[in-house]
Specification:
Layout: H1 2-46, H2 50-58, H3 67-80, H4 84-95, H5 104-117, H6 122-133, H7 138-153, H8 159-179, H9 186-196, H10 202-214, H11 218-225, H12 230-243, H13 247-260, H14 267-279, H15 284-292, H16 301-311, H17 318-328, H18 335-348, H19 352-365, H20 372-385, H21 389-402, H22 407-416, H23 444-451, H24 455-461, H25 466-475, H26 479-491, H27 503-507, H28 513-519, H29 525-536, H30 556-566, H31 575-592, H32 597-606, H33 608-617, H34 623-628, H35 633-652
Helix pairs in contact: 1-2, 1-3, 2-3, 3-4, 4-5, 5-6, 5-7, 6-7, 7-8, 8-9, 10-11, 11-12, 12-13, 12-14, 13-14, 14-15, 15-16, 16-17, 17-18, 18-19, 18-20, 19-20, 20-21, 20-22, 21-22, 22-35, 25-26, 29-35, 30-31, 31-32, 32-33, 32-35
Length: about 650
């Protein structure tokens, strides 16, 4: 009996292992075949052979992760072959599948679109369902537009029913404009609203005007703004007239609104009006002075005062200016930066205990703002000067941990590890830009589609992920767009990942480094790479408003001088020639400035004459104090950006 039980037990174990093995093998086989079938089908699809692609996508096994994508592609093939009913069936399989896929929202939206085109009444149900199930998606926004069209396409015959239908359509159309004033259906939506013939309120006219403005239709925007009350639309009047080139009118509305109506206007709109107002003056300084003469007391008054402290007031009066600003607006948008400037003034005056007290206040009141890395870093320097060495090191480590990609992390690292030198990285080890995320349960499908180079579908599924959008732009060789998207994505992260994270390679790609390394001369190639990134974002055809051109943004006169001296090719935009000339030019600056990279970087932006002038005019005891006192805000920020970029490149590669 015991032997029998033992035999039964082993038999059950054997059958279990056999069953698990069988299903595992089948799953792995399905995945392998799915990848192969999908890849072949995608090639046919890209060649516009939709009939063949449809048949090949059908071969993807049901057990494959790629099956929903294959069904989606079959639906696209059917649509391209004008077989809309067949496409609807394929989309319907995805939508009603027991296995929920990330492709479901776009599938239901596409299905509803096709149903709308063939006048299937079921479209309305699906558009409403999309709004309910995916309320924050772009598909929900667009569904409002189509629901409005459905309401007007089959109007009821009764007068009462017609009125209700028009009202529903109007609500749907307004919902669309509120969510997507610059959307691809925005102008069509406005045309549909006009056809309704409904009475427009002040809000409605302003909504339409904002949408016209967002789409660059400034003359039409002006027509609708004229039907609104100035108290609510003054900022829109000012912005619109500025775009039309009517700067006098723009400034009239700006001054009127800033004095009388700014309190009920969103901060972002007020700041944009102020920026336009200042830009309308021949000299920026004159614009700021005029702005502050208006006696502003409402929204925007703190911004005007901040600009005055930052760009107009003399150096010896800045501390008092920032103190007045901080005391008047202790919780305003510019209070953190004002407190930082007071803190720095005390530091530069060597009043370290006063500075330390202000630093404690700043870190407590504003724990994570733009000036936080700087305050944390200088608290480390203060602690060192007060001989609190352990505390000093802790502050430096905190900067590196919390703000790893900041200029102040670069400086903190030097103060912690001085034996490594100011510029510890001398060369880069090339690493490829790859898909920015590693495979997981959440993104398994997207990673597979990326591996198969189905970029269009990946782009559609990940519209809001800037890193994936950046990677797709990179794969399509749109390198400038890729770098900008990745930078914005990284800026939005509250906590920065480690430098091993694949996303950093998109933010800081190694374009043209092979050329840089060949023509570096005696320069640090990473610094040259950093200059290229900050100057042109790797666009060889970049041209500034003052005429600087190419990857290293050289002025024609400077370029011609270097070309003549070193017998280089004359094409300013040619990558190798531009980088070579830039390297020679940088070497020349460095040689004159004591072979110091930091001063050469400042001179590359602000001019060698300015830098030599600052040597005699500024009072400083180390390079930190020199950088913080650079009189040109653009040059000060440029130095910090280039050195930050150098630091990140060195850590990533």
């Amino acid at each position: 009996m015991r032997r029998r039980r033992k035999y039964d037990f082993y038999l059950v174990v054997f059958l279990t292992i056999l069953t698990v093995g069988y299903f595992t093998y089948n799953h792995m086989s399905a995945e392998s075949r799915g990848v192969e079938n999908y890849s072949e089908a995608l090639e046919a699809y890209k060649s516009s052979d939709y009939e063949k692609a449809y048949e090949e996508f059908a071969k993807v096994p049901s057990g494959s992760t790629l099956k929903p994508s294959a069904l989606f592609r079959q639906a696209r093939c059917a649509t391209n072959m004008d077989k809309k009913e067949l496409a609807i069936k394929k989309y319907n399989r995805i939508v009603h599948s027991s296995v929920k896929s990330s492709i479901a929202p776009i599938s239901e939206y596409n299905m509803a679109n096709l149903m709308f085109e063939i006048q299937d009444k079921g479209a309305k149900k699906h558009f409403k369902k999309i709004i309910k199930k995916y309320p924050t998606s772009d598909y929900a926004v667009a569904s409002n537009y189509y629901l409005g069209l459905i309401e007007v396409s089959n109007p009821p015959k009764s007068e009462r029913g017609l009125k209700k239908s028009k009202n529903r359509a109007f609500i749907y159309f307004k919902n669309y404009l509120e969510e997507a004033p610059d959307g691809r259906f925005a102008l069509k939506t406005i045309d549909e609203i006009k056809k309704l013939g409904v009475q427009l309120t002040n809000y409605d006219n302003l909504l339409i005007a904002k949408s016209y403005y967002a789409n660059g239709e400034y003359t039409k925007a002006k027509d609708y703004l004229s039907k609104t009350t100035l108290a609510e639309s003054w900022s829109d009047f000012a912005k619109n007239e500025y775009k039309l080139g009517n700067k006098e009118k723009a400034n009239y509305y700006a001054e009127l609104g800033l004095k009388k109506h700014a309190s009920n206007t969103p901060n972002a709109d007020v700041y944009e009006v102020i920026d336009n107002y200042i830009a309308s003056f021949p000299q920026r300084r004159d614009g700021i002075i005029k702005l502050n003469s208006l006696g502003l007391t409402s929204t925007g008054a703190d911004y005007a005062a901040y600009l005055n402290c930052n760009e107009v007031v003399a150096s010896n009066l800045k501390e008092a200016c920032y103190r007045t600003l901080y005391e008047k607006y202790p919780s305003g948008q510019f209070s953190a930066d004002s407190l930082f400037n007071i803190f720095m003034a005390k530091y530069l005056q060597k009043k370290y205990y006063d500075a330390q007290r202000l630093g404690f206040l700043h870190l407590k009141k504003f724990p994570d703002v733009n000036s936080s890395p700087a305050v944390t870093y200088y608290m480390g320097k203060i602690a060192f000067k007060l001989k609190h060495y352990e505390s000093s090191n802790n502050y430096y480590k905190q900067v590196i941990a919390k703000y790893p990609d900041s200029y102040y992390a670069f400086r903190a690292n030097y103060n912690l590890y001085k034996d490594d030198g100011l510029y510890p990285f001398l060369e880069l080890n090339e690493k490829p830009v790859v898909f920015p995320y590693k495979k997981s349960l959440d993104n398994n499908l997207v990673v597979k589609l990326a591996y198969l180079k189905d970029y269009d579908l990946v782009e559609e599924l990940c519209k809001k992920d800037k890193f994936i959008q950046s990677w797709i732009a990179y794969e399509k060789e749109n390198y400038t767009i890729s770098a900008v998207l990745a930078r914005k994505g990284m800026e939005e992260l509250a906590v920065k990942p480690s430098f091993e994270d694949l996303r950093w390679r998109l933010v800081y790609p190694m374009h043209y480094y092979d050329i840089v390394d060949k023509v570096k001369g005696g320069n640090n190639p990473i610094i040259l790479e950093a200059i290229i990134k900050e100057e042109s974002h790797f666009n060889p055809f970049a041209k500034s408003s003052v005429g600087a051109a190419g990857l290293m943004q050289l002025m024609p006169a400077t370029y011609n001088e270097v070309v003549k001296k070193h017998n280089l090719p004359s094409d300013l935009n040619a990558e190798t020639a531009n980088i070579t000339a830039g390297s020679y030019y940088y070497s020349g600056l460095k040689k004159v400035l004591g072979n110091k990279d930091l001063y050469a970087i400042a001179a590359y932006n602000g001019g060698i004459g300015s830098v030599t002038n600052w040597f005699s005019k500024l009072i400083y005891s180390d390079i930190d104090e020199f950088v913080e006192q650079i009189p040109y805000p653009e040059t000060k920020n440029y130095v910090k950006k280039v050195l930050r970029t150098y630091w990140v490149y060195g850590n990533v590669y």
